[in-house]
Amino acid sequence: MSQIEKLIMQPDxxxxxxxxxxxxxxxxxxxxxxxxxxxxxFPRGQLTSLLGPSGCGKTTLxxxxxxxxxxTSGEIEVNGRKVTGPGPDRAFVFQDFALMPWANVIRNVGxxxxxxxxxxxxxxxxxxxYIRQVGLAGFExxxxxELSGGMRQRVGLARALAVDAEVLLMDEPFSAVDxxxxxxxxxxxxxxxxxxxxxxxxxxxxxxxxxYVSDQIAILLPRPSRVHEIIRPSSFRNKGxxxxxxxxxxxDIVDQIWASLRSYVE
Amino acid sequence: xxVYGYRLPGMSSLLLWGLLWEIVGRxxxxxxxxxxxxxxxxxxxxxxxxxxxxxxxxxxxxFVAGVAAAILIGIPVGILMGKSRLLDELLLPWVxxxxxxxxxxxxxxLMVLFGxxxxxxxxxxxxxxxxxxxxxxxxxxxxxxxxxxxxxxSFGASxxxxxxxxxxxxxxxxxxGGVRIGIIRAVKGVIIGQLLISIVGFGALFELYSAxxxxxxxxxxxxxxxxxxxxxxxxLAYLERRVSYYAAKR
Lengths: 266, 250
Ligand SMILES: Nc1ncnc2c1ncn2[C@@H]1O[C@H](COP(=O)(O)OP(=O)(O)O)[C@@H](O)[C@H]1O
Ligand SMILES: [Mg+2]
Hints:
The complex is a heterodimer. Chain A has nine helices and ten strands.
């Protein structure tokens, strides 16, 4: 037990098994070179943030990992298997929620299961469980337009959790919700990472958010995008959600990242 | 409408126009305009006649058949055009040409092709309705939220599932809008077809009345047709509002 705790508190990247490997990925949109020879490992059971300024290719990389986009060259492995398209081992949380406006919450949450042919009653039971888990109990029959932005993203999160994929891909999931909701989300996300034993890949352009929620932060720099630096916050993760933001290491890392990025912000 | 502080029920201005019609009719200015009261009396007589009911039945039949064909062909073609670049390039110019074309001029050709009767009228009705249905279904598919398509794909939706669970529903408000306008055009189509092919339905009836100078009958049937067309259009608008309530919210 103490050994495991130690491993979590002072992770050694080499000792951690990768759930997702990105190898020499390049992606061109016509003449636009979005990614060039990008390689990155995502340790199992941890949350890795992709952090970088707007337009640096974070969404592109995430969609390539999801199998929604073909890389121009290079390959992705999830659990040792090469990615050729979307698969049940990965679930996506969209920046704009991507909910079906004509379907109520329970159908939206059950959509992934519906696509897998899970029978209606079983599907709804599972969906209800995850709706409760994200704190939306009582809203099963509501339609997306009746919910606030934060609640809609909880629906998107429940939908991704419901299919029980090992890897969760989140594209700036909290960027469209207000600041208070966002903080609550970030705390909940930490709990999720701890309890769910899933690998999270989390895109954000907020430095504070990345440092707050991540086990590992990959800083991407633009044009064409590459990994500039990998940072692994180590000491404040287990000090409780309330103490992270005033931990000296937290503050140091935020400053350090800002120093790296400031020259790329015009 | 509000007059001197009194709220009048909708369309009460029609009373004024009806009164004007009655006066012009009674003044006997022209045999072409009989008094409204006479027209109304004739209307109720006409409604009971076999000739009128046969015309109504034939019209309804041609209308329903023509509209059904337009919807069943138009929606899939529109959706496919919205999804396939190639099909779109092939068909879009024709759809646009026919949408704005004076289709009435085509009716004689249709008569030659489909015979001097019911079939030609059904085809005319379809031709009036189908183009806007195609265009709207196409527009509905094209405006679909791209991340919704990606969502379906990322959760493993098959192409068939994506079509029936995402594309169709996402495009539904536009599709219904197209169907509504298409049906309103079909009303025109079915009447124009009958007038040009004047041995069927109301075409035959109008031919009969005008050949015998039965102006009151003529106006009575016209009023019935206008009322029918207006009712259909209003009913469709009501349906559209109910079904696509979420359209504004997406
Ligand atoms: N479909 C596309 N076609 C052409 N260029 C694109 C497309 N998608 C993204 N890009 C370009 O690729 C770069 C990276 O985009 P993106 O991955 O969305 O960045 P981020 O998510 O970091 O803001 C940007 O310069 C963007 O303009
Ligand atoms: Mg992005």
